[in-house]
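Format notes (please read before filing issues)

Several people have asked whether sequences and structure tokens are stored in separate files. They are not. Every record keeps both together, in the order shown below: the sequence lines, then the token lines. Line labels are part of the format and must not be stripped during preprocessing.
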Amino acid sequence: MRYLDVPGVGLVSRVGLGTWQFGSREWGYGDAYAQRSAHDIVRRALELGVTFFDTAEVYAFGRSERILSDALGDDRHDAVVATKLLPVAPFPPVVRHRAHASATRLRLPRIPLYQVHQPNPLVRDSVIMRGMTPLLDEGRIGAVGVSNYSLDRWREADAALGRPVVSNQVQFSLATPGPLDDLVPFAEREDRVVIAYSPLAQGLLGGRYDVDHRPSGVRAANPLFGTENLRRIEPLLATLREVADAHDAKPAQAALAWLLGLPQVVVIPGASSVEQLEFNVAAADLDLAPDEQQALTAAARTFTPVSAGRTFLDSLRERF
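Then the structure lines:
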């Protein structure tokens, strides 16, 4: 396993575990997953050297935090647990109250990384960070992060906090490579962290889906799985398969390895089973050659998906 030493947070494994699916009904995993599989996945992650576990108060309305805490057990005090504040009315007293509620569900006296889940279009970070500052000063959180922030908004949050906002969690994969242009260079230059969620584009980069085999459930609503986008991504998937084959690996592992080949990037794929977790963690040992890294970057930049609106219209035409 590879690690980043993040100030105020500790040693963060480059491959973490995302827990959106813990307790969430939209993934269709059911109660058995929440009661048994989630626990087994977390315990195995610890054995494999995973230190970073990401959750949020909004995931299953706090249930994800509780399930994660139960699964970590006494190890929760040594793990790097990150959770997120949903910024609805994020005024300082509300921020303090919500941080306390998350810490209670997590059974932690100190949250290692407390993140703003998304930018609030009406409330500036100068207000939100006034709630974060006393939490830092009192040792109730180790560091502040943000999520889904543009580079300009990240810098604004930095200035408002008056100290580094150490991380920005964003959608980032070969299928959504936008952070390459600004967030990754900023993180490398300023010793920050880009946390890549949906690093496999909800399974698209596993190479299992095409126009004749599309996913169901929550993935079906993702425009990337629209017919036209499944056609357009095939050249990227072909390059991904070629790189993976050269390492006797699977496309999804090569996709994670590409992200890990970038500076200051951490990935947080979810896992539906212990086997999938082990599969994801193995990507940390996959070193791509510079020309392979460059080939995947070029293929990612060439992929130009159509919009959600176009995908919706195409789906209507296919039905009627």
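For reference, the curators noted about this record: The radius of gyration is 19 Å. Residues 30-47 form the longest helix (18 residues).
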